[in-house]
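stage 2 :: seqdesign
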């Protein structure tokens, strides 16, 4: 297998990401002479940046706010990326830029881990807050769950409606509290809570007593929303399990081997 010339994370902003810690620890353990670095790219430069990386035979990840834009800039995408309409992982093969979406499997892993820890079955009703690239991966994963209804709310109603239109049993809501009413799992797929620890996607008091909370945002000490949910007795998790799992699957895509997940977790200690 031809290994990439370098590994990068493209986003804007991107300095907060823990991905370099995780991936570089896994690379060292596996003995690959590569370094995973970040590229803060202005939106207007995304196309040119991907063109340069393709010429260099580089590989890497794509994060906010570019996951959906990158989908349109890849030469080919995997079936999973096609289903999500978003790309978070890329590499070059035979001169073509290939896009994949490991967020789908990462979310599915994190959600099942949270529900199993709460001894809960797959929910019949899910509330999804957000309609961007991360939300697209969530909706793509839940499509394979058994008869789960998804209510999407976003500050951009047209984007929520567009995402909902792509999947059965998925509906856009124009009112946030209506979206979370009766939900057994509420997912934050927006950046809320990333920079301001006081921000919460929805007040915990508006959630049911048996509702689980999954915040795809991660930060040191977890987000205020996750802490408040636990204080209220609700099962809750931040985005770290999803981050690790999607990172491990990206690693396998680039290099053809499984990384050591324990080493990845250890890098965050």
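stage 2 :: out
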């Amino acid at each position: 297998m031809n290994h990439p010339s370098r590994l990068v994370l493209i986003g804007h902003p991107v300095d907060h990401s823990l991905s370099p810690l995780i991936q570089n620890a896994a690379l060292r353990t596996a003995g690959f002479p590569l370094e995973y670095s970040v590229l803060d790219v202005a939106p207007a430069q995304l196309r040119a940046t991907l063109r340069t990386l393709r010429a260099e035979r580089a590989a890497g990840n794509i994060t906010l706010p570019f996951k959906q834009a990158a989908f349109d800039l890849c030469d080919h995408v995997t079936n999973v990326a096609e289903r999500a309409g978003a790309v978070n992982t890329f590499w070059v093969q035979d001169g073509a830029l290939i896009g994949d979406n490991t967020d789908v499997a990462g979310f599915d892993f994190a959600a099942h881990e949270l529900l199993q820890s709460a001894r809960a079955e797959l929910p019949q009703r899910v509330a999804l807050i957000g309609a961007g690239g991360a939300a697209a991966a969530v909706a793509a994963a839940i499509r394979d769950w058994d008869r789960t209804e998804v209510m999407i709310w976003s500050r951009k109603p047209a984007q929520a409606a567009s995402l909902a239109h792509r999947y059965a049993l998925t509906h856009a809501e124009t009112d946030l509290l209506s979206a979370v009413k009766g939900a057994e799992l509420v997912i934050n797929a927006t950046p809320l809570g990333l920079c301001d620890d006081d921000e919460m996607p929805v007040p915990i008091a508006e959630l049911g007593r048996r509702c689980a909370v999954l915040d795809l945002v991660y930060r040191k000490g977890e987000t205020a929303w996750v802490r408040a949910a636990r204080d209220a007795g609700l099962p809750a998790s931040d985005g770290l399990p999803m981050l690790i799992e999607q990172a491990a699957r990206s690693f396998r895509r680039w290099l053809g081997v499984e990384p050591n997940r324990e080493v990845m977790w250890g890098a965050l200690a």
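stage 3 :: structure notes
- The radius of gyration is 18 Å.
- The mean pLDDT is 95.
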